[in-house]
Amino acid sequence: MAPRVLGGVALLERAVDYLAGVLHEVPVAALTRPTPCAGWDLRALLAHLDDSVAVLGEAVGGRIGLAAQAQPEADPTRSLRDRSRRLLGAWNAAVDVDPVAVFGAEVPRCVVVGTGALEIAVHGWDIARSSGQHRPLPTALADDLLPLVALLVADEDRPGRFEAPIALPPGASAPDRLLGFLGRDPR
């Protein structure tokens, strides 16, 4: 599969831009609301995504190990927004990071960055949904993430990391197909 399909910094940038827009609209009162991620409230989801962004930031150094967890902040949305922007700057500046050692296994940079883009975009949608925003995933972003998600999420990931796919009507949009494949009901 071509690196363009698997991802790259441009794909990560589009995911971070989407997330940043969502984070600007999260009211503090929403932090205790449930999310599409079973058993998590919005504060826990923000902490999870902040940790994921920290790990993706560690990958800029050429390896992923056991990164220190992000420290809880008084304003978790601002913390995540700021960390995501720093992450994007770091990946834009990284020129010789390929492959990335992920717990000792060599993984192409485009796969690491594409996986991060998927995580950021889909959890961005989760955050929007949980905070009462009508902010769908951009169609072009979902179009570019769909081939990647099919490579990254296997039947063995269900149940556990992902719920069963949601059946959607024929002709469903790319964002709906992406979310449905990951067990999220986009309706």
Automatic annotation (TrEMBL):
This is Uncharacterized protein (TIGR03086 family). It comes from Saccharopolyspora gloriosae. GO terms for molecular function: metal ion binding. InterPro entries: CHP03086, DinB/YfiT-like, Maleyloyr_isom, MDMPI_metal-binding. NCBIfam families: maleylpyruvate isomerase family mycothiol-dependent enzyme, TIGR03086 family metal-binding protein. Gene3D superfamilies: dinb family like domain (1.20.120.450). Coiled coil: none annotated. Residues 13-128 form the Mycothiol-dependent maleylpyruvate isomerase metal-binding domain.
